[in-house]
Design brief:
alpha/beta, seven-stranded mixed sheet, 22% strand
Length: 348
């Protein structure tokens, strides 16, 4: 197969950089355009020195890219800045494939989007077209899509752990508590006081309690699986490591046992290349998936009667962002889903 010509919007951010890292060794991809308006004119190795060995195009403003020459574009721009740019790219090249790693097209309900993101959606016709890109749940839809809204890192970890259980009605979806922790790359590369080493190091801090935007994605997808509206208790925390994510979900059982939950997850992911359910007594750990596209899920009996604890971990920049986007790109181009993504976790 001829290599697909790939562009990356927002290549100077962490998700854009991880897309470059993975695509640079993808056998069917050729990176031909990189944008970063604030770093326009620089090489990628000037912005990210670990790319010193790669022959990459210089960073340019997005307006200067000839989108008609590209087959796919990955978007690593912040939410709110993405909608009109993606609309302009699709207008220039209606056949291009869009892998959006921002939050701008993830919510199906326009009122929910306005509620959680503080403004009306500006290209509703594209929001209606977008496919929610959690690969394991929407594989067929992704394969046929032109615009894929790749999920957030927290929703990916939570939904892979809980959607099969909600669909099988093994848990009470009205009683879900999610304790989530993410490395500081989840906050982006911009300078923020709370992510400075002296502020984030040697400490653990919650943020956006009861108001984190990823709650909307989690509720949307668990609600779709359960067939009813759902509200979850979701609290994220910033943990002092560069990358990685761990979600601990506390659930009430619907006449099931923790072993039933594990068996259902094993059944749901028996043929999935990247999702692994741990054996009884084996606990997921962030270091088991760091730098990889893999997910670990475990189930433990709670000492409180009729409750269980579901554990899930992934790398927030890979399966939680750029890796999942590449997994979706592979499907969209009819490539083996695992192409370019079978790296083993980096340990220690």
């Amino acid at each position: 197969m001829t290599k697909k010509k790939i562009g990356i919007l927002g290549a100077s951010g962490y998700t854009g950089a991880d897309a470059v890292r993975l695509l640079a060794r993808h056998p069917n991809a050729e990176i031909t355009a990189l944008t970063a308006n604030t770093h326009a004119g620089k090489t990628m190795s000037e912005v990210f020195p670990h790319f010193f060995m790669l022959d990459l195009p210089k960073l340019v403003e997005w307006e200067k890219v000839d989108w008609t020459r590209l087959d796919a574009v990955f978007c690593g721009l912040p939410h709110g800045t993405t909608q009109e740019i993606i609309a302009a790219v699709l207008k220039a090249n209606p056949r291009i494939k869009i892998l959006d790693m921002s939050a701008d097209f993830r919510l199906r309900n326009k009122d929910s989007y306005a509620q959680w993101y503080g403004h009306e959606h500006r290209v509703l016709e594209l929001q209606d077209e977008a496919v929610y890109g959690l690969t394991e749940l929407y594989r067929e839809e992704v394969t046929a899509a032109r615009l894929v809204a790749c999920p957030g890192c927290y929703p990916t970890a939570v939904l892979l752990a809980l959607v099969p259980l909600a669909k099988a009605k093994l848990i009470d979806v009205d009683d879900i508590i999610i304790d989530a922790k993410s490395g500081v790359t989840g906050a982006g590369r911009g300078l923020k006081q709370n992510t400075l080493f002296s502020e984030a190091g040697e400490g653990l801090s919650p943020y956006s309690i009861g108001s984190h935007r990823h709650s909307a994605e989690i509720e949307q997808e668990i609600g779709a699986a359960a067939g009813s509206a759902v509200t979850v208790n979701f609290t994220p925390h910033l943990i002092p490591m560069a990358r990685g994510e761990f979600c601990t979900s506390y659930v009430k059982l619907n006449g099931a046992t923790p072993d039933d939950l594990r068996a259902e997850l094993e059944r749901a992911y028996a043929n999935e290349p990247f999702v692994y359910v741990t054996k009884k007594g084996v606990l997921p750990q962030t270091q088991n998936v760091r730098g990889s596209n893999y997910v670990q899920i475990g189930v433990v009996a709670d000492r409180i009667k009729n409750r269980a604890i579901v554990l899930s971990t992934l790398d927030n920049l890979v399966k939680g962002s750029a890796g999942q986007a590449i997994q979706n790109m592979n499907l969209m181009f009819g490539l083996p889903e695992t192409t370019g993504l079978e790296q083993i976790a980096l340990f220690p």
